[in-house]
UniProtKB/TrEMBL annotation:
Transmembrane segments: none annotated. GO terms for molecular function: sterol 24-C-methyltransferase activity. Keywords: Lipid biosynthesis, Lipid metabolism, Methyltransferase, S-adenosyl-L-methionine, Steroid biosynthesis, Steroid metabolism, Sterol biosynthesis, Sterol metabolism, Transferase. One of its GO terms (cellular component) is endoplasmic reticulum. Residues 54-341 form the SAM-dependent methyltransferase Erg6/SMT-type domain. It is an enzyme of class 2 (transferase). It comes from the Eukaryota. Belongs to the class I-like SAM-binding methyltransferase superfamily. Erg6/SMT family. InterPro entries: Erg6_SMT_methyltransf, Methyltransf_11, MeTrfase_SMT, SAM-dependent_MTases_sf, Sterol_MeTrfase_C. It comes from Kalanchoe fedtschenkoi (Lavender scallops). GO terms for biological process: methylation; sterol biosynthetic process. Pathway: Steroid biosynthesis; sterol biosynthesis. PROSITE patterns: SAM_MT_ERG6_SMT (PS51685). This is Methyltransferase.
Length: 342
């Protein structure tokens, strides 16, 4: 079972960081970002430390509010958030043409929500690559409970330097993860190297769209809010991702920003102006309760000091994401299907 209770949330803040060091980690994390005088070059040079601190701090909040899969989804009217998340994962499996028994790599796998779903949907063996130890420990427990621990595994490593031989996977996918790479080309080249020739790589990338104007201060504010709230060094444009894929050697089969024309806006669950019973914890009222609960649990010492600050930068991220979505300058689902030539 996913750890979705209030006490799980509180005690999980900080992940593998010692509880007494959580506040210090929050300060160090915040200092990487623009609002606190941080520089893009510094974020890129120290991406492992920045991203790992971020996921140690936020993973229990993600599980509490969102579930086991840490991504947005294309959504139809009448579909619940949970249903849309699963369908978004199945879509990727279908695009990759997964066949039973294949060996698949999930790049930046979180606690393995998509990995378990895709492995069961396609009867494949999925390896989850992740550089965060806390998430891997959660993922292993959830794999055991789901009964996929014999066929799926986790590997702790950096996706910029993968510990795999050349040409070993039948398919590779990445869901809202390679946006953390300090350099897209370096990351895509590693994916290209480990993928068998003739096989496919599919991903949902976080990108700034063509509507983003870097000379517009409002657009820059939104971009910086998303970066601090989501542990990102610098959000790339869709064009930059496409170029990096081609430079890495991939043929592009097709690509599309799936937010365009989507029946339900992807950012709806985070929009403070709407109410939902099925994803109550994400609504303004739900977030008000969580904020006060975290405050109370921090004051009696169950949640480590610094927990409220984490809640606060996550709320800042939600504002940035909703604004970026409404202005159509940001997408969390720039989809592409690419092939390594024979
Ligand atoms: C937004 S989460 C998405 C997780 C998962 N794909 C999902 O949809 O549930 C991004 C993931 O990328 C992982 N990640 C970020 N940078 C990484 C790196 N350099 N190497 C390996 N994993 C990384 C994080 O630890 C996190 O698990």
């Amino acid at each position: 079972m996913s750890k979705a209770g209030a006490l799980d949330l509180a005690s999980g803040v900080g992940g593998k960081i010692e509880k007494k060091d959580v506040l210090n980690a929050v300060e160090k994390y915040e200092n990487y970002h623009v609002f606190h005088g941080g520089e893009e070059e510094d974020r890129k040079a120290n991406y492992t430390d920045m991203v790992n601190k971020y996921y140690d701090l936020v993973t229990s909040f993600y599980e509490f509010g969102w579930g086991e899969s840490f991504h947005f989804a294309h959504r139809w009217k009448g579909e619940s958030l949970r249903e849309s998340i699963k369908r978004h994962e199945h879509f990727l499996a279908l695009q990759l043409g997964l066949k039973p028994g294949q060996k698949v790599l999930d790049v930046g796998c979180g606690i393995g929500g998509p990995l378990r779903e895709i492995a069961r949907f396609s009867s494949t063996s999925v390896t989850g690559l992740n550089n965060n130890e806390y998430q891997i420990s959660r993922g292993k427990e959830l794999n055991r409970i789901a009964g996929v621990d014999k066929t799926c595994e986790f590997v702790k490593a950096d996706f910029m330097k993968m510990p795999f031989g050349d040409n070993v996977f039948d398919a590779v996918y990445a869901i809202e993860a390679t946006c953390h790479a300090p350099d897209a080309l370096g990351c895509y080249k590693e994916i290209y190297r480990v993928l068998k020739p003739g096989q496919h790589f599919a991903a949902y990338e976080w990108c700034m769209t063509d509507a983003f104007d870097r000379n517009n201060p409002e657009h820059q504010r939104i971009k910086a809010e998303i970066e601090i709230g989501d542990g990102l060094p610098d959000i790339r444009s869709t064009g930059q991702c496409l170029e990096a894929l081609k430079h890495a050697g991939f043929e592009i089969i097709w690509d599309k920003d799936l937010t365009i024309g989507a029946p339900v806006p992807w950012y709806l669950p985070l929009d403070a102006s709407r109410f939902s019973l099925t994803s109550f914890r994400l609504t303004a009222v739900g977030r008000f309760f969580t904020r006060n609960m975290v405050k109370a649990l921090e004051s009696i010492g169950i949640a480590p000091k610094g927990s409220q600050r984490v809640q606060s930068f996550l709320e800042q991220a939600a504002v940035g994401l909703v604004d970026g979505g409404k202005k159509e300058i940001f997408t969390p689902m720039y989809f592409f299907l690419a092939r390594k030539p024979l």
